C-alpha cells in the first residue's frame, strides 16, 4: 500500500497550527508526573492553555469546559481507575473531544490492557500510542520493553487500521515514521529526530498536543496529523542545534514555540 | 490611586534577596507535580533549601521545622484536603509563616473555592495568586480559563485590598504588573517578561519563592515584595537572551541563581 | 585509612558505562515527582530504558521484568508504604537487583527511619544516600536540614562500613567526595561539581543511574562505583560550561549522553 506522506511543507498542516494559535483552547489532561511539566510546556508552546491533574472537586468541571482533553494511561501512577473513567465520561458527556494514550498497554500486564479497552469504549476522538501499544490495544501480541516499543510502525499498520475501524477513533502510531488512520484513509508523517527516543515523555507530550489541536475545532484526523507533523518538524529543527539530550529538550520546546504557521 | 512602584533597583528589594542567601532557610511546600521540580530549583537558585510533598510519616514534622512553607491548592491533584489542612495547621502551630496559593479558585468549581477559604482561616502570612484567583477568593465573580487568569491586575486591586484587610494576610497578585497589599499600603512591581505567561508553573514557583523569603526572617510584606521583584528582574534578564520558551525557562533559573544582591 | 580513589580516568570505570550502553536494561523505579522526569532523562542519557511509578495493575510486573530497579523513599509523597514494600518484594523475588535511596532518613521523623529499615530487610543490592541519611540508617545521630545533609562524608565512613557489613548491601555515600563500600573494601570518588548541590534531585537521579548500572549485569560494587564516577565526570564537564544553575542541569544531561566510554 502506497500511503500519502504529510509534512510541515504541506499548507494544510501549517493551517492546523494556525488554528491552535488562534483558538488558544483550554486543554485538560490526566497524565503522569514524569510527563506533566513538559506536556504543559508543549501545549503552551503551540499557543493553547494547559491544565493537568485529577484535582479534587474540579476535575470533571475542567474536562467539561475544556476545548480538548487527553487521558494518558500512566496517570494511573497517581490517579485511580475511577478518576480516569470519570474524567473520560465528563469529557464525552459535554462534547469535549479527547485523546486516549494507552501507555504500557501490551507490556504484559493484562489488567492494564483490559482497563484501556474500558476507556476506549467511552469514545475517544483519537487514540495515540507507539506501535506496541496500538498492537496491544488492537488485541495483537505486542512486544515491548517497559514503556518503550520494540515493534515497528510497519507492524502496527494493520492493527491500527482495524482499531480505527472498530472503535471509530482516529488512530495515531508514533515511531520513526508516524502513521495516522481513520480505518480507511491512512497517511504517513516522516521527519522527527532520533533524539526523540532518547529523552523521556515526548510521546506523552504528543498526546497533549493532539488534545490542543482537537480543542481548536479541527477535524480529529487533521488534528492528529497536524500535531504529529508539528512535533516532527520541531524535532528535526531541534536536532540540528542540540549538543546532547539535555539541550535537545530545551531546543524542542523552543522550536515548537517559534514555528511560523 | 497612585501606587508606589518597587523594582530591583530599590536597595530594600535587593536586601531581601541578601537575607535569603544568608539565612538559607529550609522551605517546605505542598504543591502539584507540574510545578514541583521547577519550584525546587527556583528556591535553590535564591539560596534556600526546598523540600516538597506530603510525605507519609514526615509532612507535619517538615512543616514545623521549616523556616517558611507554602501550600499550593493544586497539590490536591495528589494530596487529600486533610493533608493540606494538617500541614497548614502544623505550620501555623509551630510559628512557620506560610503562603497560600489558591490555584483554580474562581474557575467555576465552588467546592475548590470553599476549601480555599477553609485554608485561609488557618492564617497564611501571604496569599499569592493571579487576578482571577484573588478576585474569586475575595468573593467576587472572577473570569478565568482553567488555571489562567482572564482578569486584569487592575480589576483585582479592590478585591485584594479587601481580602488583605479581612484576612490579615499580605495579598500578592501577579500579572503584567504585580500588586502587593496589606490592606492599607499597596505597591506595584513592574517588569517581568511576557514569556512568563507562555511557560508553565512560574506562578507556582513564585509562591515557593515567597515562602523562602518568609523563611529568612523578613516581614511578610517585604518577603512578598522582594520575591516578586526578584523574579521580575530575573525574567526581564532571561527574556533578553532566550530564543523561545524552552530556553527562557533555563535562562530564568540561571538569572535567579546569578543575581547579585 | 588511606582509601583508593576511582575516577573516570580508570578504564574499569569507563567499562561500566560501556556495559550499560550495550545492555540497555529496562530500569524501573519508584521515586518522587520532583525527581522523576530528570531521573528518567539521566537513565536514558546513559543508554538504558526507564519506567517510573507505582502504576496500578502493572507495578510488580515491571519490577519483575526489569534489569534493575530503585526505590526512593520520597516516593512516599504519592505512593503508600505497602506499594513500596510490594515492589521491593517483587524485585527481590524475581532476582531484579535494586537500590534503596533512603531520602529523609535521619531528618527527625522516626517512623520514616523505621520504614527504611523495613525496606532494608528486603535486601537491596545497593543503599545510596547522602551522609545524613546513611548515618541515620546505620542508627547514628544524623544532622540534616530537611532533605539536605549537614553531615560530612568523613563522618559517614564508619557508619557506612558498618551498614554494609550488617546488611550485605553495597553502601554509597554521595558528597563532595563520594564513598563506596562493601564493608571491607572502600573507595573514594572525587570530582563532581559544587553546582550539583544547587539543583534539585541530582541525588535521586544518581540512585536511578545505579539501578541502570545494576541492570547491566555488573557486580553491585562496580555498578555503584561506575554510576557515581560517571555522574561526577559529567558534572565536572557541565560545570565548565554552565552559566548558572538552569544551564547546569541542561549541560549535565548533555554530558551524560555524550560521554565516550
What descriptors fit this protein?
UDP-N-acetylmuramoyl-L-alanine:D-glutamate ligase, Ribokinase-like (chains A, B, C), about 15% strand, kinase (chains A, B, C), homotrimer, EC 2.7.1.50 (chains A, B, C), alpha/beta, thiamine biosynthesis (chains A, B, C), 10 helices, Hyethyz_kinase (chains A, B, C), 11 strands, nine-stranded mixed β-sheet, about 260 residues
Portion in helices of chain A: 40-55%
Helix and strand succession of chain A? EHEHEHEHEHEHEEHEEEHHH
Class by alpha and beta content of chain A:
alpha/beta
CATH level-3 fold name of chain A: UDP-N-acetylmuramoyl-L-alanine:D-glutamate ligase
**What would you give as the CATH superfamily of chain A?**
Ribokinase
**N-to-C CA distance of chain A:** 31 Å
Number of domains of chain A: 1
Show the largest interface.
A-B, 34 and 35 residues
Give the second-level CATH assignment, the architecture of chain A. Answer: 3-Layer(aba) Sandwich
Alpha-carbon Rg of chain A, integer: 16 Å
Using DSSP, what is the number of strands of chain A? 11
Descriptive overview:
Three copies of one chain form a homotrimer. With 261 residues, chain A is of the alpha/beta class. The first copy, chain A, has one domain: 3-Layer(aba) Sandwich (UDP-N-acetylmuramoyl-L-alanine:D-glutamate ligase). Chain A contains ten helices and eleven strands. Chain A has helices at residues 11-23, 36-45, 59-65, 81-93, 110-120, 131-137, 153-167, 202-214, 220-241, 245-258, and strands at 4-5, 26-30, 49-52, 68-72, 98-101, 126-130, 144-145, 148-149, 170-174, 178-181, 186-189. Chain A has a nine-stranded mixed β-sheet, with helices on both faces. Chain A has a two-stranded antiparallel ribbon with strand order 7-8. In chain A, helix 2 packs across helix 8 (202-214), helix 3 (59-65) packs parallel to helix 4 and helix 8 (202-214) crosses helix 9. The longest helix of chain A has 22 residues, at 220-241. Chain A is globular and about 45 Å long. Chains in contact: A-B, A-C, B-C. At the A-B interface, helix 2, strand 3, helix 3 and helix 10 of A face helix 2, helix 5 and helix 10 of B. Chains A, B, C: Catalyzes the phosphorylation of the hydroxyl group of 4-methyl-5-beta-hydroxyethylthiazole (THZ). Chains A, B, C: Belongs to the Thz kinase family. Chains A, B, C: Keywords: ATP-binding, Kinase, Magnesium, Metal-binding, Nucleotide-binding, Thiamine biosynthesis, Transferase. Chains A, B, C: Its cofactor is Mg(2+). Chains A, B, C: ATP binds at residues 128, 174.
